[in-house]
Write a structure and sequence with these properties.
The protein has 13 helices and 14 strands. α3 (77-98) packs across α4 and α12 packs parallel to α13 (427-441). By secondary structure, it is α/β, with parallel strands linked by helices. The protein has an 8-stranded parallel β-barrel with strand order 1-2-5-8-9-10-11-14, surrounded by 6 helices. Strands 3-4 form a two-stranded antiparallel sheet. The longest helix is centred in the N-terminal third of the chain and has 22 residues, at 77-98. The N and C termini lie far apart (48 Å). The chain has one domain: TIM Barrel (Alpha-Beta Barrel). The structure holds erythose-4-phosphate (E4P) and phosphoenolpyruvate. Phosphoenolpyruvate (PEP) binds at residues 68, 115, 232, 263-265, 287, 318, 350.
Length: 445
C-alpha cells in the first residue's frame, strides 16, 4: 500500500526534540522548507538502496564517515575537500583489500543535529540548555546562543545544499580520479610515520593500477566517484518538511539526504522516530548499542523492513570494544536465523568515549581498532558479512582522539580540539584505520 502521509509520528512521543520557544516562527519556517527544492533525488536514494543490497549480500563494503556534528562555519571548500579526500583515500585502500566495491556514504550535508545525554550544561556554576547542534542552537555558552531558533533549520538546509553541491562537483569533475587518490595515499605512506608500515600494500595497489594502465584500461569509473550523503534523522519537523511524494513511484522519500539513520537514543520501538522512518523509502540505518535485545532487533526489522529487502535496513552496531564480542553474536545469529538480511556495519566510536584527565571527551585509537576487530571476528565466526564501518572523522589534523600511528597523547588533546560534540579521528588516524581494516580483510591482522 502506498504511504503518502509523513506526519503519522506526530501523535507519538518523540525523544530529543528541541523546545522551540516561538511556535509561530517554527510553523513559518517549516512551511518555507516544505516549499524548497529537494536536496537529493529520490532515484539516487533507490540507487543507494541497491548498492546497499549488494553489501547485505556480501558483495560490497560500506564506508560511512564524517563529522560528529557539522557546523555552519565549517562549510568551506577546505573542510569539505579534506573530509572528502580522506574518505576517498580510505575507500581506495579498502576496495583493493576487500576486492569488492566500496559504497561511499558521508556523514555530510545534513549532520547538524545532536542527541544529548543531558538537556542542560553547567560551567562554573552557570546552567544553560545543552548545545543540540547548529540546526537548533549555538555552541557559544551564553543564554542567547542556547535558545533554539527555527531560523537555523533554514541555515541547515542551505549549508547542506552548498556542501552537497561541492561534493557533487568534486566527485564528478575529476578531482576524485582514482589515480589521484592513490597518489595521495602514496604521500601518506611515504611521508608519515603511521604510513610507512603500509608500503607493501601501497606498492601492490600501484602495480595493479600500472597493469591496468598498460592494458589500456582507463574506465570512466576511475575518473568519477559515486558518493552519497547521510545524517541522523533527529529533528523530525525538519525531516518531515523535506519529505516528499516521489512523482515516479507515488512513495515518500526524505529528500534531505540519501540515507538517514535513527540513533541509539531515539530508536524506541513505539516512538516517533521509528514511525517516521517506516514511512519513507530511503535506505534507513539504526544504531544498536550493547543493551539491544534480539526482540528489539527483530521488531525493528518488522517495522522498517517488512519486505526483507536487502539494502533497505542497515544495523549500525556500536557496542564498545569491551562488549562487542559478547553482545553482537546472539543478535547477528538470531536475526540471520529469522531470514532477514540487513546490512551490518560497525560504528567503533560511540561505545568507546571517555573523559580524559584533561577534561576532554576522547576515544582511544586502539579501542576503535579493537571494536572493528571484534566485529570482524564475530561475523567471521558466524559466516555472516562484516559489511562496513561507520566512523566519526575529519580530514583535518585535529587532536581529539588519542593514539594512532602518528600518536596523539592525552597531553596533546588541547592543541586542536575543534569538535562541537564528540571526538573524531583525524586525517592520519582515519587512514591508519583504513589500512588496518584492509589488513584485517587480508587476514594479516
Ligand atoms: O554523537 C553522539 C551523541 O550526540 C553524543 O555522544 C552525546 O554526547 P553527550 O553525552 O555529551 O551529550
Ligand atoms: C549520536 C550518534 O550516535 P549514537 O546514536 O550511536 O549514540 C551519532 O552517530 O552521532
Amino acid at each position: 500500500m502506498t504511504v503518502t502521509n509523513p506526519h503519522t509520528w506526530q501523535t507519538l512521543p518523540a525523544a530529543q526534540q528541541p523546545e522551540w520557544p516561538d511556535q509561530e516562527a517554527l510553523r513559518k519556517t517549516l512551511a518555507d522548507l516544505a516549499s524548497y527544492p529537494p536536496l537529493v533525488f529520490a532515484g539516487e536514494c533507490d540507487q543507494l538502496r541497491a548498492r546497499l543490497g549488494a553489501v547485505a549480500r556480501g558483495e560490497a563494503f560500506l564506508l560511512q564517515g564524517g563529522d560528529c556534528a557539522e557546523a555552519f562555519d565549517g562549510v568551506s571548500a577546505e573542510h569539505i575537500r579534506n573530509k572528502l579526500k580522506t574518505l576517498l583515500q580510505m575507500a581506495a585502500v579498502l576496495t583493493y583489500a576487500a576486492s569488492v566495491p566500496v559504497v561511499k556514504v558521508g556523514r555530510i550535508a545534513g549532520q547538524y543535529s545532536k542527541p544529548r545525554s543531558k538537556s542542560t550544561e553547567t560551567r562554573d556554576g552557570v546552567t544553560l540548555p545543552v548545545y543540540r547542534g547548529d540546526s537548533v542552537n549555538g555552541f557559544e555558552f551564553t543564554p542567547e546562543s542556547r535558545i533554539p531558533d527555527p531560523e537555523r533549520l533554514k541555515r541547515m538546509y542551505n549549508a547542506s545544499a552548498a556542501t552537497l553541491n561541492l561534493v557533487r562537483a568534486f566527485t564528478t569533475g575529476g578531482y576524485a580520479d582514482l589515480r589521484q587518490v592513490h597518489a595521495w595515499n602514496q604521500d601518506f605512506v611515504r611521508n608519515s610515520p603511521a604510513g610507512q608500515r603500509y608500503e607493501q600494500l601501497a606498492r601492490e595497489i600501484d602495480n595493479a593500477l600500472a597493469f591496468m594502465n598498460a592494458c589500456g584500461v582507463a574506465p570512466e569509473e576511475f575518473r568519477t566517484v559515486e558518493f552519497f550523503s547521510s545524517h541522523e534523522a533527529l529533528v523530525l519537523d525538519y525531516e518531515t518538511a523535506l519529505t516528499r511524494v516521489d512523482s515516479r513511484t507515488g512513495e515518500l522519500y526524505d529528500v534531505s539526504g540519501h540515507m538517514v539513520w535513527i540513533g541509539e537514543r531515539t530508536r524506541q520501538l513505539d516512538h516517533a522516530h521509528i514511525e517516521f522512518a517506516s514511512k519513507i523509502r530511503n535506505p534507513i540505518g539504526v544504531k544498536l548499542g550493547p543493551t539491544t535485545t534480539v526482540d528489539e532487533a527483530l521488531t525493528l526489522i518488522e517495522k522498517l523492513d517488512p519486505e526483507r529487502e536487502p539494502g533497505r535496513l542497515t544495523f549500525i552496531t556500536r557496542m564498545g570494544a569491551g562488549k562487542v564480542r559478547d553482545a553482537l553474536p546472539t543478535l547477528v545469529e538470531k536475526v540471520t536465523a529469522s531470514g532477514a538480511q540487513p546490512v551490518w556495519i560497525c560504528d567503533p566510536m560511540h561505545g568507546n568515549t571517555f573523559e580524559a584527565s584533561s577534561g576532554h571527551k576522547t576515544r582511544r585509537f586502539d579501542d576503535v581498532l579493537d571494536e572493528v576487530k571484534g566485529f570482524f571476528e564475530v561475523h567471521r565466526a558466524l559466516g555472516t558479512h562484516p559489511g562496513g564501518i561507520h566512523v566519526e572523522l575529519t580530514g583535518d589534523d585535529v587532536t581529539e582522539c588519542v593514539g594512532g600511528g602518528d600518536e596523539v597523547l592525552v597531553d596533546d588533546l588541547h592543541q586542536r580540539y575543534e569538535t562541537a560534540c564528540d571526538p573524531r579521528l583525524n586525517r592520519s588516524q582515519s587512514l591508519d584505520l583504513a589500512f588496518l581494516v584492509a589488513e584485517m580483510y587480508r587476514g594479516t591482522v
